[in-house]
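Sat 14:20. Reprocessing the chain from the morning session after the first attempt stalled halfway. Input below, unchanged.
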Amino acid sequence: MANKFRKVLTLSLSEWAELIISAEALFEARIIFANQPAKTLLARLKKPVSGFPEESGARDQAVDDQLVRLEWALSVAARILPWRTDCLIRCIAADKILRRRNLEPHFYLGVTQQTDTGFGAHAWIRCRGISVAGGEGKEFEVLIGPEELKR
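Finished this time. C-alpha cells:
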C-alpha cells in the first residue's frame, strides 16, 4: 500500500490529466455500452477516420509517447473504477479519446478456441502500430479489423 501511495505522489501533471480523461471516457463508455445495441457499437468502432492529417516525422515520438501514456492511464483507471471495464468498454473509451485528438484508432475484434470454455472473444484498439486498449490480441483470430473494412 505504501508503494502505491508513493507512486501516486510521483505522478506528473500530464499523467494526472491523462488519468482523469481516461476515467471520464470509461464512464461515458460504460453508459454507451449499457444503452446501445451491439450493432450500433460495432458500427461506431469500425467507422474509418478520414481527413485527419498525417503526423510529420518530427512529431512521431511525441505522439507515440502520448499513446503509451494513454494506454497506461486507461488500464490504471479501469482497475480502480467501481464498475466493469471489460475490453470492449476500454475500446469505446480509447476510440473516443483518439478521435478527439485527431488520431486514427484501429478497432479489432477476435475470437479463440479455449479448452475450458470452448470460446473466447476479445476487443482491442491500436493506433500508429501501438496497442492503446485491450493489449496485442495475438492469440485471437481477427474477425473485425482494418483489413476487414477494405473488403
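DSSP finds six helices and four strands in the chain.
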